[in-house]
Amino acid sequence: MELPKKLLDLTDFFSRFPGVGDKTALRQTLFMSKWTPNELAEFGNCVKELASLKKCVMCGMFADDEKCSVCNSEERGEAKTLCVIETITDCLAIERSGFFRGRFHILGGVLNPLVGIGPEELGLDHLFERIKNDEIEEVILAVNPSVEGDATCSFIKDSIDSNLKVERIGFGVPMGGSLEYLDSLTISKALENRQKM
Question: How do 54-55 and 62-63 pair as beta strands?
Fold first, then answer.
C-alpha cells in the first residue's frame, strides 16, 4: 500500500530526529493527521519561528533578545566565574543542577583539525576577549572527556593568563554507580580526579 506523498514527506522529516526510526516517524505523522487544521497551523508556525531564533551575543545561548536571561541577570551578569561548555544542552544540564551561579560560554563544539574545526570556527578569540574584558577570575572547563575535548581544554588553558584560576570538572563514578559495571576509562578518570578527604 502506498501512502499519500504528504504523509511520506512529513514521515521523512520526523525520521531525521536523533533516535527516531521509520516506525516511530510514521506513528508521529499518523498521530498528527488527527489534529485539527488550527492545531496543525499552530505547530507549523512554531516550527517556522525556529528560523528566526537568536543566540546571545555574549555566551551563545538561545535568546529572545540580544542577550540571554543569564547574561541579562544583574547577579549573574557580573559574576567573575565563567563556565566554558561544548553545547547548549550541556548548559541546560548544568542549569538544571542549580549548583552553578556564574556565567557561561558555549563553544559549539571542540577542536578537531581532521574535520576542519580550529580556534576560528569555535570563536575562541571572542572567549579570550571576554575573559579579559569582563575581568574573569576563574574559568571552569566543563568540556566532555574525549581526545578532542582534552585538546580543547589544553589549548584554552595555554592561551589565557597563567595567573587566572583554571579548573576542569571532575569525571568518574556517577552517584549510585557500581565499580563492577564501569568501563576502565571511567575508573581511570575517577582515580585521576580523586579528592582529599
Answer: antiparallel
